Structure formats: C-alpha cells, structure tokens
Fold Transcriptional regulator.
Amino acid sequence: MINEQTNPLDGIFAALSDPKRRALLARLAAQDGLTVGELAGPLPISMPAVTRHLDVLEGAGLVSREKQGRRVLCHLRPAPLRAVRDWLTDYETFWTEGLDRLAALLEAKP
C-alpha cells in the first residue's frame, strides 16, 4: 500500500488517530523530558510498543528524543499541534459565522 502524504497535517492527524499515542502526548504535556520507561509505566502496553508509537509521533514531528548519557528523554514539540489548531480554527470560524447567520435568519421570521 502506498501512503502519499502531501500535506504535513496528514501525518500529524494519522499520528493523533491512535488513543495510545494521544496518551503518550498527554503524559509529555504534563511532564516533559520523560524516558521511554517512564512513559510506559502507567500505560497497559509494552516498552517495544511504546517505542513504536514514539517512532510514529517523532515522524509526525510531535515528539523529539534527546540522548543524555545513557538515558533518552522524550520531549513534546508543540509546533505541529499549533498547525492543527490553526487548521481547526479556520473551520470553527466558518461554522460559527454560518450558525450566526442561521440564528439571525430564524430570529427575523415572525
């Protein structure tokens, strides 16, 4: 299967589509700079699975890893999440304006 992602948002949304990856991001948002073991601790998945999920998140630019001696620390990278927020804001504006127009139209009817 060929997976052509022409828009960077495609990779971000693909990475965010998995609840375990979202849980990893939530842990990093709460406490940045965790090791893979620290990330895996409270989750019901294996260390190799956490590593594979981190690979996907890193590929989407959502996470970076930094080697410090014998430890590898994981960091949340907020820029891709800002890109998602900006994309969603465009749609929020569209729907808000449309619903406001509909409300005004309904209120104007006797």
Notes: Residues 8-77 form a domain with the Arc Repressor Mutant, subunit A fold (CATH 1.10.10.10). Helices lie at 8-16, 19-30, 36-40, 47-59, 79-108. The beta strands are 34-35, 63-68, 71-76. The longest strand covers residues 63-68.
